[in-house]
Amino acid sequence: MDRGAAMMRYTFDNMGQLARHLHVVDNQALLFVRDLKGPAATLGRVMVELEISEPAQKTVVRGEVVARAEGKVQGSWLQFGDTRLARKLQKGGFISRRERRVSADQLLQLNSPAGTQLIVQLIDMSSGGMRVRCARGLNPGESCAIRLLGSRTAHADLGAATVLRAEGQEVGLRFATRDNPAVKRYLQSLHQAWDQAVQIKHQPDCCRQRGPIEPSLPKLRKQDAL
Fold first, then answer.
1. Neighbours of 6 (CB within 10 A)
2. All residues at 6 or more sequence positions from 39 whose CB lies less than 8 Å from its CB, including other chains
3. Looking at residue 73, what is its pLDDT?
4. Beta bridge partners of 61
5. What pLDDT score does 97 carry?
6. Residue 198 contacts by C-beta under 8 Å, 6 or more apart in sequence?
7. CA 26 to chain CA centroid, nearest Å
8. What is the average per-residue pLDDT within 67-77?
9. Mean pLDDT of 146-166
10. Is the separation of the CB atoms in 58 and 48 below 8 Å?
């Protein structure tokens, strides 16, 4: 697995807590992560699994660290280009999948029977299939062979898959063989990576009075807000 993005799990008691912490500014979502035992995140890309304890739900968002706070409340501001979750929470909802999928930060190579090769980014996967982005040009019904980039040759082949849906650059694929040992092995490595992710829990002293305990929202640079 590509370890380029820092991995974090942030657990909240309920959706109201997360909704108060997830802000929308200039069409970007911002989340503050407090430092309790040292910096939880440094400048760079992040994948954050946001978990709600009651009702039990979780989802993964991708972004980057855009600012550090070193005052009374120390921590990092994370920025996410996808604001769907924040807007959904404002209406009392949440984005969660029925089938348990594991998110990853991994590049794949898709090879079609016609010889076409595409380099795509894995979004998430299960034993039955996966979602990828940057896969423009693939159409439902097409088949392709999937290889992990940067892995040992013996473990790189994930087998064949069929395109189920294509929405812009995002494509959903179903594995031709559900019990492929290579897929199981890779899923196990993803679970192990998430088990080693930084664990963060919403603090009980936060959100009790006027709102979340966090510094003022950072001023985004113009290029950050694109």
1. 21
2. 68, 76
3. 85
4. 48
5. 57
6. 6, 7, 8, 9, 40, 41
7. 21
8. 86
9. 89
10. no
Q: Which residue's structure tokens are 């993005």?
A: 5
C-alpha span between 17 and 94 (Å, rounded): 13
Q: What are phi and psi of 116, to 5 degrees?
A: -75, 135
Torsion of Cα atoms, 59 then 64 then 69 then 70, to 10°: 110
Mean pLDDT of the chain: 85
- The number of residues making up the chain comes to 226
| pLDDT > 50? residue 226 | no
- What CA–CA distance (Å, rounded) separates 68 from 123? 27
Structure-block tokens of residue 1:
């697995």
Q: How far apart are CA 198 and CA 142, in angstroms?
A: 39
Alpha carbon distance 161, 180 (integer Å): 11
Q: Across-strand partners of 66?
A: none
Q: Are 126 and 102 in contact (CB under 8 A)?
A: yes
Give pLDDT, residue 90.
78
Domains of the chain: 6-99+195-201 (2.40.10.220), 102-191 (2.40.10.220)
CA 120 to chain centre: 15
Give the DSSP H/E element, type plus range, for residue 24: strand 22-25
Give the model's confidence band at 120: pLDDT under 50 very low, under 70 low, under 90 confident, else very high.
very high
What is the Cα gyration radius of the chain? 19
Pairwise pLDDT comparison (50 vs 72), residue with the higher score: 50
